[in-house]
C-alpha cells in the first residue's frame, strides 16, 4: 500500500518523511536561544502556547552551510506525543510512494545513521528519475545523541 511522504531538501540531497508525522510547515523565525544547548538546537519558539524545541537538521547532519533565506522553513512534527520543529532548506511536495518504489539504502559512510533510513524512494517522472532518502524521523529525533528525550531505563538482568 502506498504511503505519503513530505519531501524536503538539506543541501543538495532530497529527503522524505512520513506525512502523518507532520503537523504544519512554518516560515523560519529566529527562536529563543537556550544556554549550553548543542549547536544544532537553535532554541525554542512558542507555538500557540506550546514551547517547541527547534532543531536545525542541516547542522545536525552536516548537510549544508545552513544559510537562512526565504526558502528556509520549519517542519513542525509530532513525535511520541511531543511537538518538535526541524529546520530544512526547503520543502517540495507530498509524494505517494509505493513499496515497490522503495529500494534498500546502500551501506555507506553517511552523516545520517543507517538505522534512521527507511530506504531510497525511486520515482520515475517522465524521462527523469527522482530519488529521496526516506528517513525514520522518529528514530532520528529520539536517538540519544539528539538529547530531546529521556534515555530509556536500563534493562534489568
From TrEMBL:
SMART domains: CheW (SM00260). The keyword Lipid biosynthesis does not apply. It is found in: Cytoplasm. Keywords: Cytoplasm. The keyword Cytoplasm applies. Transmembrane segments: none annotated. Residues 2-146 form the CheW-like domain. PANTHER family: CHEMOTAXIS PROTEIN CHEW, CHEMOTAXIS SENSOR HISTIDINE KINASE-RELATED. This is Chemotaxis protein CheW.
Amino acid at each position: 500500500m502506498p504511503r505519503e511522504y513530505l519531501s524536503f531538501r538539506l543541501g543538495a540531497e532530497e529527503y522524505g518523511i512520513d506525512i502523518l508525522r507532520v503537523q504544519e510547515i512554518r516560515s523560519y523565525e529566529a527562536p529563543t536561544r537556550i544556554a549550553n544547548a548543542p549547536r544544532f538546537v537553535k532554541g525554542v519558539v512558542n507555538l500557540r502556547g506550546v514551547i517547541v524545541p527547534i532543531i536545525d537538521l542541516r547542522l545536525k547532519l552536516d548537510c549544508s552551510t545552513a544559510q537562512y533565506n526565504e526558502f528556509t522553513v520549519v517542519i513542525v512534527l509530532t513525535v511520541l506525543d511531543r511537538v518538535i520543529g526541524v529546520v530544512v532548506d526547503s520543502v517540495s511536495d507530498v509524494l505517494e510512494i509505493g513499496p515497490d518504489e522503495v529500494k534498500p539504502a546502500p551501506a555507506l559512510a553517511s552523516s545520517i545513521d543507517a538505522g534512521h533510513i527507511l530506504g531510497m524512494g525511486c520515482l520515475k517522472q517522465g524521462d527523469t528519475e527522482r530519488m529521496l532518502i526516506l528517513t525514520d524521523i522518529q528514530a532520528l529525533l529520539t536517538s540519544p545523541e539528539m538529547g530531546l528525550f529521556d534515555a530509556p531505563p536500563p534493562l534489568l538482568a
